[in-house]
Structures are given as structure tokens and as C-alpha cells.
Amino acid sequence: MAISIHGEYRNSKKSPWNFERYQSNLECRMMDRLEKDPHVVKWMKRHGITIPWIDGQKHQRRYVPDFLVEYEDGKKVIIEVKDPSRLDSDDVKRKRKAAEMWCKQRNMEYIVATIG
User: Fold this and answer.
1) pTM over 0.85
2) For residues 95 and 63, what is the distance between their CA atoms, to the nearest angstrom?
3) Structural domain spans, the chain
């Protein structure tokens, strides 16, 4: 299981905000990766996207994905960072399916990233 740390990622060159909050070491590492990627033009956690999904008890839920990323070719991608041990959870699978459909409707891509 990933180590859960919380903090602020400051002075990003590619986020429109002067800081972004992370809720895990995995998210912080993804922020570093996005900052260093020469093809990434912009990324943010505070993107305002919420995706509706249905849980195992048929209740409507709302899912806020981790990152919205824009690449130099104009492609927009939602990236969800997950510990590999959680990929097979039913809720993660349901959220992923909902997010993939949401992105497809908007000509975007959805990626689940595991950072080792």
C-alpha cells in the first residue's frame, strides 16, 4: 500500500495555480513527473471535473479524478494515480468505466497510472 502523505506542491511552472495539494506520495511523484515532461503544457488538480458513477449498491456517486493534463499537441488527458494493489477493486473499476465514457464523449483520454 502506498504511503499516504499530504502536502502542497509549490512553484509549479505548468500548473495555473501557485500551489497544488496532494493527498499521497504517488500524487506528489506524478506532479514531479508532469513538471519534467517536455510534452506537458499544463496540468492541474484543481480542475473542477466531477464524473458521476454508480457504486455496487446502485447509489449515484461523484468522482473527482486526480489530474487534468494538456499536452503540446492539444490532447487533454485525465490521469488517475493508483497504487497497484487497488486496481482490482470493484469501485475503482466502476469509476474507471464511468471516466472512460465521460472522456470519450469529450474527445479526451483517461489513464490510470501506477508509479513504481
Assistant:
1) yes
2) 7
3) 7-113
Cell of 81: 494515480
* Structure confidence at residue 88 (pLDDT): 86
**In the CATH scheme, what architecture does the domain 7-113 have?**
3-Layer(aba) Sandwich (3.40)
Give CA angle at 10 (9, 16), nearest 5°.
95
Which uninterrupted H or E stretch holds 23? none
Three-state secondary structure of 28-81: HHHHHHHHHCCCEEEEECCCCCCEEEECCCCCEEEECCCEEEEECCCCEEEEEE
Mean of pLDDT values over 34-62:
96
Q: Is the pLDDT of residue 35 over 60?
A: yes
CA-to-CA distance for 10 and 75, rounded, in angstroms? 25
Distance, in Å, from the CA atom of 61 to the CA atom of 51, rounded to the nearest integer, reads 8
pLDDT score for 5:
78
Residue type at 82? Answer: K
Residue 1's pLDDT band (cuts 50, 70, 90): very low
Residue at 112: amino acid letter = V
